[in-house]
Amino acid sequence: MSELSEETLKGISNQVQTIVRELAEAGKLSSGQLLVIGASTSEVIGHRIGTAGAVEAAAAIFAGVESVRRDIPFIPVFQCCEHLNRALVIEQSAALQLGLELVHAIPVPKAGGSMAAYAYGRFVEPCLVESIEAHAGIDIGDTFIGMHLKRVAVPIRPSTQTIGSAHVTMAITRPKLIGGVRAVYDEESKLKPEQSLFHCE
């Protein structure tokens, strides 16, 4: 029996929807880009991570992610717990398209976590991969998703700091800045076609 009321579960779903939209906007997420989600449903329902997984909370989180994905077709990827070495649940078609190496296990609440197990059951053709380099990520309950983000990670502050009882952090990524003192990073400063410069090479 769930520890969370139907109203609370709906609230979780709405909160997740809000922060995913905020992240997608901040990171300008587009079709085919990867969003990694790590979630401790134990933390969401007010328990220590890894001690009281709740499939109902996982369902609410998944619904919130999916509601945004219908508008912005990013690729959702759900992180397993440490018992599966923080492998990731992803649609097999996306994994193959991205050239990712597949590994095999079937996540269950006690080995993989309720969130990953729920996502595995909802995806059309799920599979696991060991690692990815995601464009953005959301961490619900301090599950440490940083190992699966592209460099360089940029923290984004969500409008809500908690989902249920779980602490929330999230990040987008940007390309590494290269060059020295003369390097320019602002698009507004790029050379216009009508301009001609002869200061470098």
Give the CATH topology: Rossmann fold
Give the overall pLDDT as a whole number: 93
DSSP E strands, number: 9
Alpha-beta content class: alpha+beta
- Shape descriptor reads globular
Order of helices and strands: HEHHEEHEHEEEEE
Beta-strand percentage range: 15-25%
CATH architecture label name: 3-Layer(aba) Sandwich
Give the total of domains.
1
What is the percent of helical residues? Answer: 25-40%
Number of helices: 5
- What about the largest sheet? 9 strands, mixed
In CATH, what is the class?
Alpha Beta
Low-confidence stretches: none
Any idea what the CATH superfamily is called? Hypothetical protein TT1679
Q: Taking Cα atoms only, what radius of gyration do you get, to the nearest Å?
A: 19 Å
Distance between the termini: 70 Å
Protein traits:
single chain; 201 residues; alpha+beta; Rossmann fold; 9-stranded mixed beta sheet; 5 helices; 20% strand; globular
Give an overview of the whole structure.
- The protein is of the alpha+beta class.
- The protein has one domain (6-189): Rossmann fold (3-Layer(aba) Sandwich), CATH 3.40.50.10360.
- It contains 5 helices and 9 strands.
- It has helices at residues 6-27, 41-44, 55-69, 92-97, 114-122, and strands at 34-39, 75-79, 88-91, 102-103, 126-129, 136-140, 153-156, 162-163, 166-173.
- The mean pLDDT is 93.
Layout of strands and helices, then pairs:
Elements: H1 6-27, E1 34-39, H2 41-44, H3 55-69, E2 75-79, E3 88-91, H4 92-97, E4 102-103, H5 114-122, E5 126-129, E6 136-140, E7 153-156, E8 162-163, E9 166-173
Helix pairs in contact: 1-3, 3-5
